[in-house]
Design a protein that fits this description.
single chain; 130 residues; mainly alpha; elongated
């Protein structure tokens, strides 16, 4: 996929500035080596991003490939946790303590039909279903 020079410039400047900020925060916290590495990465993205954005094509493709892998992993992790931490316990509690469809056959009724109250037929009700 071919990226326009505008998109590549935007990528270089955005990610470069992010690395600059991360380096500044790391320096502010008292680290010595990590800020230098982050600032070097920032310059390696900012300078080509401003001068020759086409050079960032392979970098941007690799960056996006890594982002897709991380996004795929995070999606599965978050949805898996949501399922097993939220939906499964709620489902178990509902199955044990509640019968939302009133399916219990504990009584001796011949039918479990629930009668609706009779209302006058209104044509507008059929035209607006939801």
């Amino acid at each position: 996929m071919h990226q326009s020079s505008r998109d590549l410039r935007k990528f270089g400047v955005t990610v470069g500035l992010a690395f600059l900020v991360l380096g500044a925060v790391s320096r502010w916290r008292g680290h010595e080596l990590p800020p230098r590495v982050l600032w070097t990465l920032a310059m390696l993205l900012l300078v080509p991003g401003l001068v020759a954005p086409a050079l960032l094509g392979p970098v941007q493709r690799a960056w996006m490939a890594a982002a897709e892998v991380m996004a795929s992993f995070n999606t599965r992790l978050i949805l898996g946790l949501l399922f097993y931490v939220v939906f499964t316990p709620v489902g178990l509690v509902m199955r044990i303590f509640r019968d939302p469809m009133t399916r219990s056959m504990r009584d001796t009724k011949r039918s479990h039909w629930i009668r609706r109250k009779l209302e006058p037929v209104d044509r507008a009700r059929y035209e607006q279903q939801f």
